[in-house]
Amino acid sequence: MTEYNSMELMISVAARELKNGSAVGVGTGAPCAAAMLAQKVGAPNLVIVFEAGGVSPELPEMPISVGDSRTFHKAALAGSMGDIMEYCARGFVDYTFLGGAQIDMYGNLNSTVIGDHAAPKVRFPGSGGANDFASFCWKTLVMTPQNTRRFVEKLDFLTTPGWLQGGDSREKSGLPEGTGPHKIITDMAVMDFEPESKRMRIISLHPGHSLKDVQENCGFELLKADSIEDTLPPTKEELSVLREEVDPYRYVIGR
Amino acid sequence: MEPLVQGKGPLFTDPDPDRARRIFRKKDRTQTNKVMNLKKAIESYVHDGEYLAIGGFGANRTPVAACHEIVRQGRKKMGFVGHTATHDMQILSAGEVYDRIDVAYIIGLEARGLSTCSRKYMESGKVKVTEWTNYSLTMRLKAAAMGVPFLPTRNLMGTDTFAHSAAKIVQCPYTEKKLVALPALYPDIAVIHVHEADIYGNARFKGISVSDIDLANASKRLIITTERLIHTDEIKRDPTSTRIPYFLVDAVCEVPYGAYPGTMPYEYFSDEDHLKEWLRKEKDPDAFKFFLKENIYDCSTHEEYIKKNGGTQKILDLRAKELLLFSEVR
Asked: Of B38, B106, B240, B254, which shows the fewest CB atoms inside 10 Å?
């Protein structure tokens, strides 16, 4: 069996979600690696957009900023932030990848503060483009390590919308219909959301992890799908492309 | 249009388009030579207490030299738009230049990590904060550029980001859908770094525009820093390339490598070693104080700062990196 680390597994699983001929809004790091991997393995016509204005670049290496020169290297367009977010707002962008300091059972994310907003214990960067992407893109994917510090019963601050309070609360809020969190990919499992309650639900376990592990590393009760699958580990092709072409300096997969 | 709900964050700037029109009406439209050195431009156009915007995207085509000069001249109590503010914010935080901020993305330097200095300042209780998002700030600038008091969008709803913004939710008069009304943002002063400009302020830049076209249009005053001055004949030969016309501009400063240590597309890549050094030095207050003295307070120009950090050879290395020629020329 081929050896791989949990970051390589997460990126490979995430890349499989991105269908050929669709569009994805990504940031730096693991999400960008997943989009690059998808482009090279099975989804050559995946359109990658970066929030600062880069559209469909041929990425020569991992960008260090979502606005650096690499994000519009041999691109279709070097546009503006308005251009990108308006594609999303009009319904052109299928997926986005997000992360955060905290996530709750409805897939809402916190990247703003720990503690009280007026006198925060810890101040984080804030929304950036995350709230915009999650509001507008059809499907939000989250890639994150899983532990009870991150997967919490109650967020300190709801920066970026998931299913809000569950049920039909997202659509009632006024956010565009048919949008919302799709899958959560952690280092232990893959979760989706139960269609009625919109609560997070385990659908697949990564090799070496049990339901008990996954629940113990989560600060709220996870639902379980009727049949839980075994996550397919990274294939030889995925690993070689990831290691040799996507991230040869191991900026992301070396973490 | 009665608001259904409204955010509780303070609104730091006036969204009234008629008051803004009175200011734009007074702006001089004559073609005059606006070339001056950066020190004079900051002295003349950036004042304590005003609301400041910095162009580019964090450490990409960002007027770093101007940020240094603002800190060197000791500006205080400014408002600041944290529209993906990364290395620019790190510099302004070191000088405690601002005391209120509209936040989309702050503190972080994206994949490089978080700035200890920016974080400490934001956690100090000295700064008033209103939350937004990147697109919200773009649209606020666009509203100002259009001369309307707000623009409607469909983000923000249902979140604490909205609750801590100064936006309002209204009902669409056509579809009855809920919309966020984002108030126009007219900065008092903006600084934008470009590749080329003439002496009147006609400016060109290459690559992504981020929000700089709307920012140039929305700002009451505008300083252009440019990699190089070009002749007006060249502007007139190819007006398609002009991104910012001269009458929006108050000062033109020729500052080669003015975005260093950030990236300038097609010119030079970011100096990642030096940006890492910033992040490292910030962790030790004494070392950081000395670092700022060396790199900002004791430098009279951007040229001196670059000389201290590798000079021409460093720039050549960064140019090779930007052009993906690094292995060929090393």
From this structure: B240
